[in-house]
Specification:
alpha/beta, 6 helices, Glutaredoxin, two-stranded antiparallel ribbon, 5-stranded mixed beta sheet
Length: 184
């Protein structure tokens, strides 16, 4: 095989090897691991409203678990899905295993919403979903701390992004959730 044919083949293979985040057109195009280790394709929530939050058990914002659970309980029958994504990127505030995280959330905050496996949300090792979110959301930029929130509308697109200090029961968050729940 001559060198030019090999170069053409290598280039073709490189084009075919486009990564998931380059193909993604929506946060729903990603699959992560659930807290129990099973695959969790976000596409299963197509047509729902998702509040995606990177969480930590030993953070000053940890009491937001209570408000997240209250939001979930109040709106889940209307189509709200709350997803907690444990992260240890900020101050080592989520040091435990997935089992530790689940136990903490259940014992302390009676969490029933979905918890995923721990991931990185910043830097070169960030989960592809978070690379997508920080580059493609209406408010692009790196995740600033634990409890950063992304609201994904029924259309599968990021509707809004809220800072870690913005509490889940803040009037703006609730208003935006209610607006997305009303959208068809």
């Amino acid at each position: 095989m001559n060198v030019s044919i090999v170069c053409v083949l290598v280039c073709c293979l490189a084009v075919l090897a486009v990564s998931a985040e380059e193909k993604a057109k929506s946060p729903l195009d990603f699959t992560l691991k659930a807290n129990d280790g099973t695959d969790c394709a976000l596409s299963q929530y197509k047509g729902k409203v998702i509040l995606l939050v990177n969480v930590a058990s030993k953070c000053g914002n940890t009491p937001q678990y209570k408000q997240l659970e209250e939001l979930y309980e109040k709106y889940k029958d209307q189509g709200l899905v709350v997803i907690g994504v444990p992260c240890n990127d900020f101050g080592g505030q989520e040091p435990g295993s997935d089992l530790d995280v689940k136990k903490f959330c259940t014992d302390n905050y009676k969490v029933t919403f979905l918890l995923l496996s721990k991931v990185k949300v910043q830097g070169a090792e960030a989960a592809p979903l978070y690379k997508y979110l920080t580059e493609s959301s209406p408010k692009p930029g790196k995740i600033t701390w634990n409890f950063e929130k992304f609201l994904i509308g029924r259309n599968g697109q990021v509707a809004n992004r809220f800072t870690p200090k913005t509490k889940p029961d803040d009037a703006t968050v609730v208003k935006d959730i209610e607006a997305e729940l009303k959208a068809k």
